[in-house]
């Protein structure tokens, strides 16, 4: 069975998509068959891998609203062993949530869709979530074995941690008892400022034993790669950002393996 | 009557809160009586101005769910002529949206609350929105005269612009015909990379004539100020970030005045 990992944090712009795309790329490069699911209506993960959203037949929303085998929405990426279920922006975020709200068993839709995959199709499934704790993120947390929480090394990113961890434990108690926090990944660390180091310390106190050793540095290559439709592995594998995501992926494998 | 301006963009981390807080601070410093409303469940605008969320009696959610005069939730900030309606995290984002969804006339709740203010209490009301196009942002767009759209100078921030402008025109046609895009404010411009300049050019093509002349540079002072509970005006008024927000505020006054 595939390990299903959600990238979630309702704070915006903390590196959920960048982490989902680059962890997936290094998992695939490391020999693991990997599926990335983009449930953010903005479709940033879809375009970060160079896919044309208009050219995709089915998106994750079609499957969630009108259940069909998930395999029908899977498209290849430019990388071996890495496949994607795209998000297309036909429906606005609020329309998708509204359409889902009207359905019964609405938080289980993604879990049911994942159950339609052949049991040994993938080793890892990563889910990129939108910046909210609404029904789309709820679907991801209900379907996942674990959550990786990207946190930007900035003060405002500290605010929502209590809300987020409450939500995760609420989902664990009500919908998905196997859900666990796999780890907290610190992102956009800027060594030139004291602020970054202070935030890392604060998060270490809040989530003891759950913080990845690897801290992702702020680096322009990571922000440029999506404009070329490539992961950092494809765009600039020697950059500090690439080496950091390679190390973070190795930690993810170890953490996911332990459970 | 006060000019009501929403800071909205469903892309996360683009500088909505930073812009809402600092534009409000410079409007107040410029002699305008200003009210900042924080409708983001994370409450970043509330803590950026140094307010203790636990100490606030009423939050915007209490008013939206169980209508009462908005003035009852207004609290002073450390700055003259600047007042705040705080967001407290009692209700998770998804719970607030769920509670609001059940009410009739749900998208008008904020507009109705604003109507309870004395007509000449404020010159400007700014509303800081969460990173989604759900019911909370819909409430802000329905109540507002204008929208300022902060856009980070990064590739991924370009993706959702079509969705956002579609949403604004949908609200204009269905709920609030006076709604208009006051301007697009480019944020976190990093002069050391080509990427920033390329994104500004792209946005200028997408929103001709609506882009603020002032571009907000990336600067650590802006990210540090909230950890001291101060606007950039209070924290470091001589910094490049402070001077840029002062200039952007003057543009906002001119743009809001013209309409
Ligand atoms: N380590 C990094 N260094 C520099 N830029 C980065 C880094 N990580 C992410 N970015 C850039 O920062 C912005 C925010 O990152 P990203 O979009 O991955 O966050 P997100 O949490 O997925 O955002 P949203 O909340 O909108 O889904 C993007 O423009 C991205 O390219
Ligand atoms: N010009 C700037 N230079 C440096 N850092 C900035 C700048 N503007 C904002 N920041 C920082 O970037 C992060 C994102 O900004 P902010 O929280 O204002 O965005 P937002 O759009 O309100 O995010 P959300 O989508 O979560 O509401 C914050 O940590 C903030 O302190
Ligand atoms: Mg994202
Ligand atoms: Mg914000």
Question: Per DSSP, what share of the residues of chain A sits in E-state strands of 2 or more residues?
Answer: 5-15%
**H/I helix tally of chain A:** 11
Bound molecules: adenosine-5'-triphosphate, magnesium ion
The radius of gyration computed from the alpha-carbon positions of chain A, rounded to a whole number of angstroms, is 17 Å
The pair of chains with the biggest contact is: A-B, 46 and 45 residues
Main beta-sheet annotation of chain A:
7 strands, mixed
Order of helices and strands of chain A: EHEHHEEHHEHEHEHHHH
Which structural class do you get from the secondary structure elements of chain A? alpha/beta
Mean pLDDT of chain A: 92
Largest sheet, spatial ordering of strands of chain A: 3-4-2-5-1-6-7
Kindly describe this structure:
Chain A is an alpha/beta fold and 259 residues long. Helix content of chain A is 41%, strand content 14%. Chain A has eleven helices and seven strands. The first copy, chain A, is globular, with a radius of gyration of 17 Å. Chains A and B meet through helix 2, helix 4, helix 6, helix 7 and helix 9 of A and helix 2, helix 4, helix 7 and helix 9 of B. One adenosine-5'-triphosphate (ATP) sits at the interface of chains A and B.
């Amino acid at each position: 069975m595939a390990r299903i990992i959600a990238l979630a944090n309702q704070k915006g712009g903390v590196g959920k998509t960048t982490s989902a795309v680059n962890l997936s790329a290094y998992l695939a490069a490391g020999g693991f068959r990997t599926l990335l699911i983009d449930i953010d209506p903005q479709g940033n993960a879809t375009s970060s891998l160079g896919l044309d959203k208009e050219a995709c037949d089915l998106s994750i929303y079609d499957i969630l609203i009108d259940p069909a085998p998930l395999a029908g929405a899977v498209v290849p990426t430019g990388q071996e062993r890495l496949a994607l279920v795209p998000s297309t922006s036909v429906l606005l975020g609020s329309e998708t949530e509204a359409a889902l709200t009207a359905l019964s068993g609405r938080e289980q839709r993604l879990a049911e869709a994942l159950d339609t995959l052949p049991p040994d199709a993938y080793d890892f499934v990563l889910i990129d979530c939108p910046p909210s704790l609404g029904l789309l993120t709820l679907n991801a947390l209900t379907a996942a074995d674990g959550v990786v929480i990207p946190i930007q090394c900035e003060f405002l990113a500290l605010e929502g941690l209590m809300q987020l961890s409450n939500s995760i434990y609420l989902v664990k108690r009500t919908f998905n008892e196997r859900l666990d926090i796999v780890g907290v990944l610190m992102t956009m660390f800027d060594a030139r400022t004291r602020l970054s180091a202070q935030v890392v310390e604060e998060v270490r106190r809040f989530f003891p034993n759950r913080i990845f050793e690897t801290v992702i540095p702020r680096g322009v290559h990571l922000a440029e790669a999506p404009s070329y439709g490539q992961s950092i592995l494809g765009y600039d594998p020697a950059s500090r950002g690439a080496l950091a995501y390679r190390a973070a992926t190795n930690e993810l494998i170890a953490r996911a393996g332990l459970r």
